[in-house]
Specification:
With 186 residues, the chain is mainly beta. It has one helix at residues 3-18; strands at 50-56, 64-71, 76-83, 89-96, 101-108, 113-121, 124-131, 141-149, 155-162, 170-179. A ten-stranded antiparallel beta barrel has the order 1-2-3-4-5-6-7-8-9-10.
């Protein structure tokens, strides 16, 4: 092939590549996926979020403050339990679409860790798990906690324990979370 023929072939190829008819269309803009935790199930425990003063139900003595925060694009609810006796702890709570249940992992200053699983039942969040030593050293039990939003804006957390694998239940703790008038700690 002569040099002039080669130049013509290159020029023809360049014209075809540059012509609008052969130009590739731009890809359609990517639509971002919906947020991972946008479903209504992920909002079921939102009533617990806030900064609270915590009292034994029906009693006036303040026993704790609790900061409950929605985090990580609404996928997690974190509890910061700050009792006046300084036995601090907290929990991470999230709804898992795989098993369609709520999971809570409780961790505390005594190096305790407890896993609870459950869900919304008749407007209450009900979580259950095995709690080693809940009734004292060597006195383990299955614990069922019910979180109930009240009409006055408070939340009741009622705990029951069963030492016979859920055949019978005994009250174990009963707290009312009332909205704090103080700002949360920083």
């Amino acid at each position: 092939m002569k040099l002039s023929s080669r130049i013509l072939a290159i020029a023809s190829a360049a014209a075809v590549i540059a012509s609008p008819a052969s130009a590739q269309t731009a890809p359609a803009p990517r639509v971002p996926p919906p947020p991972a935790c946008a479903g209504p199930e992920h909002r079921q425990f939102d009533f617990w979020a806030g900064y609270w003063d915590v009292y034994p139900t029906g009693k006036p003595k303040l026993v704790a403050h609790s900061l409950i925060e929605k985090l990580y694009s609404g996928c997690v609810i974190r509890e910061n339990w700050m009792p006046l006796n300084h036995q601090d702890g907290g929990s991470l709570n999230n709804y898992m679409t795989e098993d369609k249940r709520w999971h809570q992992t409780w961790l505390d200053a005594g190096n305790g860790r407890i896993e609870f699983i459950g869900g919304l039942v008749s407007g209450k969040m009900v979580l259950m798990g095995f709690w080693p030593g809940v009734n004292g050293p060597g006195q383990d039990a299955l614990v069922r906690m019910s979180y109930t939003p009240n009409a006055d804006g408070s939340v009741r957390q009622f705990g029951e324990a069963s030492s016979d694998h859920g055949l019978t239940w005994q009250p174990n703790f009963d707290f009312t979370y009332k909205p704090s008038k103080d700002p949360p700690p920083k």
